Amino acid sequence: MDATHFGRFSGRHVLRARRPRRAHPPHRRPELKDSRIPRRRTALAVAGAVALATASSLTFQTAHAAPASGTAAMSAARAAQVGQQLAAGLGSGTAGSYYDAAAGTLVVDVTDASAAATVRAAGAQARYVRYSAAQLASARRTLEQQAAVPGTAWSVDPRTNKVVVKADSTVKGAELAQLNKVVAQLGDRAALKRTSGTFRPLLAGGDAIWGSGVRCSLGFNVTKGGQPYFLTAGHCGNASATWSDSQGGAQAGSTEQSVFPGNDYALVAYTSGVDHPSAVDLYNGSQQSISRAADATVGENVQRSGSTTQVHGGQVTGLNATVNYAEGTVNGLIDTSVCAEPGDSGGALFDNDSALGLTSGGSGDCTSGGETFFQPVPAALSATGASLP
């Protein structure tokens, strides 16, 4: 997405309204899936926002793969599981991992032969790199202490063994000079990329849900204590205490918990008899059933469903991303090449039947392309005590 579409990184959300849906026949109750498109939109404004950035791939010449004998073909979901297990077991011996979707292979960055042997024994491909996870984490801490200005974001790219730092069009003058200075001090542990857009949140996504003067999107239907709830973005939950499934309609839910900044998730309790299937709207007359929550992995092919732009796909480009919004810093996000636009916030990021993330913010649009950040679903479920139906 070209963030110029969203305006300056100024704390303004662009919300879009839609024409009320046709009434369902009396014998059917309305459903809230995880995406539905409005017929017509009217721009609305509300305070608070989150942003996005676009990142391009970098070439890292010092990394090389260890022999790939014994490498096993894996699904993205399996690769994520193995990558987490290896990271926990190897500790400082690994510097991240990514999924090679074309080859169906998990590639794990390592710094010593012992770690490489462990990686190969797990059926993954070991790749020797220059910098350890500790060295890259040290670079991130330096950025947090010396360069955390609104309009910036960063995450570790395991494919380049660098911390990729992004600055949007609002970072100028002394702030840009300071950012350039800090990145230069980090040497080739970090690389700075500029985006012509601005980082901001995207109020909307999934099935359209209407709050007090705002429209967001339903992410995933969940349960807590045997009762029905749904997840959406925290900057949406902060904007409204109550929600409806149509503009000006009867209340369908109330915000029970909302966290933003820091993280970006909200838990909303259903307060009316609305069906709540565990499914995502694909905008082609069909749905994608959701059966589990999963952690994303770099290189994984994913899809996003939103009420403004329908379904779009892309790849996971980074994990544990930090985004410095005007409202504050959000950590632990999934960075992707998926586009999104205002009205897509809170919507579903998924891979087949796996719930991965909730749309937070980004830059660009779905005409020219963009980058979008997502709140991981497993972390939101753990924090709220909810589970998928």
From TrEMBL:
UniProt keyword terms in alphabetical order: Disulfide bond, Hydrolase, Protease, Serine protease, Signal, Zymogen
Catalytic site: 235 (charge relay system), 264 (charge relay system), 345 (charge relay system)
Start and end residues of each stretch annotated as Disordered: 1-39
GO MF annotations, alphabetized: serine-type endopeptidase activity
Intrachain disulfide bonds: 216-236, 339-366
Keyword DNA-binding on entry: no
CC terms in the record's Gene Ontology section: extracellular region
Bias type Basic and acidic residues, positions: 28-37
Family: Belongs to the peptidase S1 family.
Record-given protein name: S1 family peptidase
Record organism: Streptomyces morookaense
